[in-house]
Structure formats: C-alpha cells, structure tokens
Amino acid sequence: MERKGKAFIISGPSGVGKSTVLKALFEGRDDLYFSVSATTRDPRPGEVNGQHYHFISPEQFMQWINEDAFLEYAQYVGNFYGTPMRYVDEAMEAGKDVILDIEVQGAMQVIAKRPDTIRIFIAPPDWDELERRLTMRGTDTPEKIQQRLLRAKVEMKTAMDYDYFVINSTVENAVAELRAIILAEHCRIDERMDELMNI
Fold first, then answer.
1. Residue 82 belongs to a domain with what CATH number?
2. Which of 42, 46, 78, 134 has the greatest CB tally within 10 Å of its CB?
3. pLDDT band at residue 160 under the 50/70/90 scheme
4. Residue 103 resides in a domain
C-alpha cells in the first residue's frame, strides 16, 4: 500500500525567509507538492497559470466558496486568494507531502477543516536580524518595515498554537529541521502500524 501524504502548514512573519527555505527544501525532492493558491487577480508578467497561481474569475471563485472547495480563503486589496482543496487531496492521495505556505489567519481556517494538518512556524533568530532582512530586500519604506515588524510580533504570539518551531538562523539549518519534522511525522506509531498491517 502506498503511503498517503500529509499536509504541512508553513507560517512565519514577512522577511523571515520562507520562500528561500522552501525553495531549498524542494531541491531534489519529488515526494513534496507545493500548494498553489487560486486568485482572482490578474497574472503579472512572467506568471504561469497553475504554477504561480490558479488564475480564476471572481464568479468562479464565488462558486468554489459556495461549493466549500477551499481549505482557506481571504480577500486582500480587492482580490480573493484561496487554497483549493482538490489539488491538495490529489497530491496526498498520490503519496506526496503537501506544503502550504499560509499566514496565521489562513492556518486557523485550515485547522478548523483539517485538524490533522501539521503546523510549522518559521521564526527569525532575533528582531534585529528580521529588520536587517526586511531592509536588505529593498522593497519597503522604513515606515512599511516598522509596520511589518509590528505585525511580526503579533504573529509570533500565535506560534504557541503551532506544532513545531523552526528558527531560520541559516537556510541549511532550517531546511534540515523541516526535513526532520516531515520524516518524524511519517514515523508516528499509527502510520507505522498501518504499514505493518498491510505487509
């Protein structure tokens, strides 16, 4: 019997380095699936439908809401964003572990529907480093950076609701810890006993 995949939520404040860590996590791994969100916003130059987002119409999005087809969704700056359940379930049935890059509010929605989803919070080594990373990105004004830092402190308080806490001191360490968590979750007694029963 092929093992079923598990779903892992990865959350963390803006600037913590989630994208860099996840890119490294996926290198050389064909047993992982990155959950691609659906959105009603228009594609930006270079964005590919189904790879960066599933670009759908507002009407289609509302229909999916009515059909309870999202694990979570939210409206942001006039557009809707959501995690379609179908793609997540298909990947898990195929034995792949699904990585959901979701902020803390969305994570709460997912857990309400799927309590067995594993939650991992990625944190910076300290506040000075987070501020440095946000500044180095060169995309925000000093005021915006301060807003992001304030929001990060609020988000950090929700980390107690997560199952695991990874400190991104270096990308290599963070990836090693994520791989260890994924492996450990597949060594749980219930899953291992299920495998033994099917030998």
1. 3.40.50.300
2. 134
3. very high
4. yes
